[in-house]
C-alpha cells in the first residue's frame, strides 16, 4: 500500500502524537511463545487495526514491522533469527523492522534486576556474575559498563537484546496476563508501561512503535567543494581544541565506552544486520576560518573513542543537502575523511533559525558566526541546573511520550525547534551562556555561546565542575519537570 500520513482515529489516544506518523503494515510471526505473549500480540495488533494499520496474518511484500517472540533466558538460534532472515525467508521487498516479545514473571524480572544490582556494586566486574547462555566471553565487560552507565536495567536490557539477537524488544511482565511492559532499543531506552488499563496500554505501545518506525535516517552525507588544504587545516586552533575537549569530557566520564556487538555475541550474521558498534555521543564547534562546523566522525563504521579523538577523527560540515537526507561535507586534504557523526544534520541545522553574531578583533578574526559556538550530544541526563547561568529548553510535547532516535530527521527537527525557542540564543546578550535540552530515553544536547578567552567546550566542562549543570548517568524515560530548591537551583523530578 502507499505510505501516507496517519491521522489517528477515535478510541484512546493517551497523549499528543506527532503529526508525521505513517501507516504501517504489521504482522505477527511467533517463535517460542506463551499464552501471555500471544494475548499481548493480539492486543497490540488490535490497537494497530483500530488505528488504521493493516495486520495481515502473514508477512506481505510491503510488510514494515514483524513481531516475533523469544524465550526469557534462552539464546536465540541465529539460524532462526528474523532480524537476519526475515526479508529472504518471506520474500519481502525490503527488510522489515523486527520487535521481539519476551515474557518474564515478576519474580524472574526482579531476580535478574537484583542480581545485576549486586554485581554492579563490585569495584571491578566478576565475569561469573555475567555468565549467561549465548553470550561471548567478553560480554561481562559491556554488561558491567552499561549497568554503571544507567543502572541495572541497562544490564537487563543488553542481556535480553543479546539472547534474543534483536535490538528492539518488548519485555512483558506477568503470569497469565500482562501486568506491565518495558520497551528496549539500541541506545538504551527502557520506558515501563503499566497494563492496568488495557486499551490505553496497547494504544500507547502502538504509538511508540509507529513513532519509532515512521522516522527516516538522515545519514546520506554528500561531499562538496574542494578539500580543506592541509596548510589551512594545520593553521587552525580548533582541531587541537576538539581533541582537548574530548579528553576533558572523558575525565568527567561524559562518554561511556562504545558498545560492540562482538563483545556480546559471536554471531557474524548479526553484525551484517546491524552496525558492529555504536559510539556514545558526538560534539562539534564552529570554525570561522573555514566557515564550517568541525565535528567528530561517526562511530558506526569504525571504533571511535570520543574521549581520545585525534585530528583524524574530525570532519568538516558546511550545510545540509537540499533534500535533507544528510549533511554537506568538505574533505580534509591528507585525512582519512570518514563520514561525520550520524547527528551531523542535527548539529548544523540547529543554527538555521537562530541569529548570527559578529566576532571582533579579540577573536583574531572579524567574521559573522552562529550564536552557538559548540554543541555536545551525549547519552546522559541532567539532574539539576542553575537557571541564572543555564537555560533549559523544552521539546514539543509529543517527544516526551513518543521519543525518536539518533540520526533521524524527526530528532533533528525536534532539537532544532527546541533551541529555536531559546531566549538566551535569540538574545545574544542574555547572560545565560549555556543552553540544554533533555531527550527522554536517549540523552541530552547542550550548547555554549561565544566567550572571549575560552576554548571550545571549556565553558561546558567548567559549568559541570562548578555545579551550574549537574550531568547525571540516569536519563528520564518520559515526562519530567524541574522544580526550584531553596538555593535557587532547578532539580529534575520525573
Structural key phrases:
494 residues, alpha+beta, Rossmann fold, 2 domains, 23 strands, 28% helix
Model description:
With 494 residues, this protein is α+β, with helices and mostly antiparallel strands. It folds into two domains: 26-214, Rossmann fold; 222-493, L-fuculose-1-phosphate Aldolase (3-Layer(aba) Sandwich), CATH 3.40.225. The chain has helices at 35-50, 82-90, 106-119, 139-150, 152-164, 198-214, 230-235, 238-251, 268-273, 344-349, 409-420, 423-426, 458-466, and strands at 26-28, 65-70, 97-104, 169-174, 178-184, 192-194, 222-223, 259-260, 277-278, 282-287, 292-296, 314-320, 327-330, 356-359, 367-370, 372-378, 381-385, 390-392, 434-439, 443-449, 469-472, 481-484, 490-493. It has a nine-stranded mixed beta sheet, sandwiched between helices. Helix 1 (35-50) links the parallel strand 1 (26-28) and strand 2. Helix 1 (35-50) packs across helix 6 (198-214), helix 3 packs across helix 5 and helix 4 (139-150) crosses helix 5 (152-164). The protein is globular and about 70 Å long. The relative contact order is 0.11.
